[in-house]
Amino acid sequence: MVTGEVASLNPFLIAQRQLDEAAGVLKLDRGLHELLRWPLREFHVRIPVRMDNGSVRVFEGFRVQYNNARGPCKGGIRFAADETVDTVRALAAWMTWKTAVVDLPLGGGKGGIVCNPKELSPGELERLSRGYIRALAPAIGADRDVPAPDVGTNPQIMAWMLDEYETIVGHAAPGVITGKPIPLGGSAGRTGATGLGVVIAIREALAALGMDPASTTASIQGFGNVAQYAAIHYREVLGGRVLAVSCWDHKDRRAYTYTKKGGIDPRFLQTITDTFGTVDRAKAEQAGYEALAGDAWLGLDVDVLIPAAMENVITADTVGRISGRVKILAEAANGPTTPEADQVLQKKGIYVIPDFLCNAGGVTVSYFEQVQNAYNFHWDVAEINRRLDEKMTKAFHAVHDAAKEHKVPNRVGAYLVAVERVAEAVKLRGWA
């Protein structure tokens, strides 16, 4: 049994607890509720990899297919040293609700490998990526389960995985993987899609609160792909200022918050950031940036906080550091807020844009990529962004309206919209 502090931070127990609250409001049948609390199936694999020094190292991998009542499972693959099956289960659950809240004909899944990709050579990464697909090829496919990039993975890794799958099945199958390089069937606009979706959701929240976007400020945790494009679009689309970004420095093995008077320039910081989201501290300081403590981003006097890194960063212990000026918490990361911290945010009157709504831009454009692959056709970036804006805006207002109607927090409102849609599909199939 998981108890105490460990239980309070276990992402899958948090996901189940959030679902339970929505199930109570929806008065779900007991059997249906129990079905939705657990993955339909999951795979645990061991992947032997020949390392550059000639030795063989065995890696542990997971793929969780949470629910496919609305369509094929969909979800990224993480390469992370601290990956656990409970993290993957939680992420697969949130993917199920994410695809439903933006009304995509998809289910939810997630994958992961326990490894530190920063410590692996390109050759080792390729052999690991191909080994993962060899282990799971029978379980994935455009009509079964479609992986994509996530933390620690990228389009090149997706290219290796696609090639391995096509080698196994003996024919072209571009729809089996999304987040691919454009020459292999990737979609225009996919790289910045999650960050743009975050900013679209913030735009709608600011409008709901009667705030002028151009007069607002934000602070962001993380400077990986999602955070970079959230910062860029916050500045260039909304006209607001980003005062700080925080990122992990894998060389120093600590985090720093980078800030600059008048606001940061995210496009400049991109030029001095490596593929793992680490800003070159020396170059940043030469350009006039100040490197503060890694957790300084949380307590800055801003209007919008954007956690865009990992789970469990806003907890009962850290939520009290949030400035009284903050009006919006935009959860660009998955599971950044614990239920205990959620209660404090409600009392503070902070408008929370819940994770599986806020960061749904990535899976939305991944779905567009699947559609384009199926038709062997490509939309340009303007069309992709137009369709993304339409989907995100409609989803935002469905959640906002559900929360108001039921007089519940936005997170519960998002669950009400998503769970009701999945539950309807489950009942129509006769599963419960």
From TrEMBL:
Q: Which InterPro entries match?
A: Aminoacid_DH-like_N_sf, Glu/Leu/Phe/Val/Trp_DH, Glu/Leu/Phe/Val/Trp_DH_C, Glu/Leu/Phe/Val/Trp_DH_dimer, Glu/Leu/Phe/Val_DH_AS, Glu_DH, NAD(P)-bd_dom_sf, NAD_bind_Glu_DH
Q: List, alphabetically, the Pfam families matched.
A: ELFV_dehydrog, ELFV_dehydrog_N
Give binding positions for substrate: K74, K98, S366
Enzyme active site: K110
Query: What keyword terms does UniProt attach to this protein?
Result: NAD, Nucleotide-binding, Oxidoreductase
One GO molecular function term of this record is: glutamate dehydrogenase (NAD+) activity
Q: Which residues form the signal peptide?
A: none
Site (Important for catalysis): residue numbering on this chain: D150
Q: Where is the Glutamate/phenylalanine/leucine/valine/L-tryptophan dehydrogenase C-terminal domain?
A: 187-430
Please give a single GO biological process term from the UniProt record. L-glutamate catabolic process
Q: Which residues bind NAD(+)?
A: T194, N225
Q: Which CDD domains match?
A: NAD_bind_1_Glu_DH
Say which family it is in. Belongs to the Glu/Leu/Phe/Val dehydrogenases family.
Q: What is this protein called?
A: Glutamate dehydrogenase
Species this chain originates from = Candidatus Bipolaricaulis anaerobius
